[in-house]
């Protein structure tokens, strides 16, 4: 089976390991969500005309972004991805379109200047928040992680106590954050059943908010084994919601970077261990599991 966007390119569920030595692309990120790619002119053959981003798992024109390559004035080629170009959420693999020279070619990551993404503070727009972070895949290829969210609830500091988890956050991409947050709640939604929900009230000041999620509610009906709760910020009238996530920085995959301990909890069913974590999509969740035996 092949990808209709590149008929000679086979579709794979995951991106492939490097089998040759493709060019390296340096990346510069801007605070609005745009990216600039600079790469050396490949030796031999015709000069490539486009940089192509393909969304992993996609198969139509909406899952392809073509960026023209032009000289950057320093003997290299440049492609610019403006923040205004729509990109669905997901992982986008970066290719060099070589035309008839042999089909698409994956690129290696070069230098990445992501300083503008650190502690990013989006402006007061209500348009969807575009976040793109370049990263190296497990096979060493260049890819871009993309998010597109409105509204967006950016998770901040988490404090763990014996009774629960206290979290701070910031609401973005709504017209009046203070009004939106009035009487809002954080919902913990169990993945084992959509009907199982626990709520925590929100205290807000401007667009900043805090909440405390008690362990007791998460463990009340727990019957052993791992159980995951996804956290959402919800308006009081139920008219809007935002997934709690941490995407406004330069870390594409937070699951292995922001690691929190599981704390012991005396649950009715059995001794439990509860702790927050970030998912593969950088969304905030809480895991309840059986407490390991003390050796």
Given the C-alpha coordinates, what overall shape results? Answer: elongated
**Number of helices in the DSSP assignment:** 2
Q: What structural category arises from helix and sheet content?
A: mainly beta
Q: Helix coverage percent of residues?
A: under 10%
Report the span from N to C terminus.
52 Å
- Highest CATH level, the class of the largest domain: Mainly Beta
The main pleated sheet reads as: 7 strands, mixed, barrel
CATH superfamily of the largest domain: Immunoglobulins
Strand order of the largest sheet: 14-15-18-17-16-19-20
What Rg, in angstroms, do the CA atoms define? 22 Å
What is the fold-level CATH name, i.e. the topology of the largest domain?
Immunoglobulin-like
Weakly predicted, low-confidence segments:
8-13
Strand content: over 45%
Protein name: Transferase
Organism: Streptomyces orinoci
Region (Disordered): 1-22
Task: Report what the structure shows.
- By secondary structure, the chain is mostly beta strands.
- The chain folds into two domains: 148 residues, Sandwich (Immunoglobulin-like); 139 residues.
- The protein is built from two helices and 23 strands.
- A seven-stranded mixed beta barrel has the order 14-15-18-17-16-19-20.
- A hairpin with a 3-residue loop joins strand 14 and strand 15.
- It is elongated and about 70 Å long.
- About 2% of the residues have low confidence.
- This is Transferase.
- It comes from Streptomyces orinoci (Streptoverticillium orinoci).
What are the key terms here?
Transferase; single chain; 2 helices; mainly beta; 295 residues; seven-stranded mixed barrel
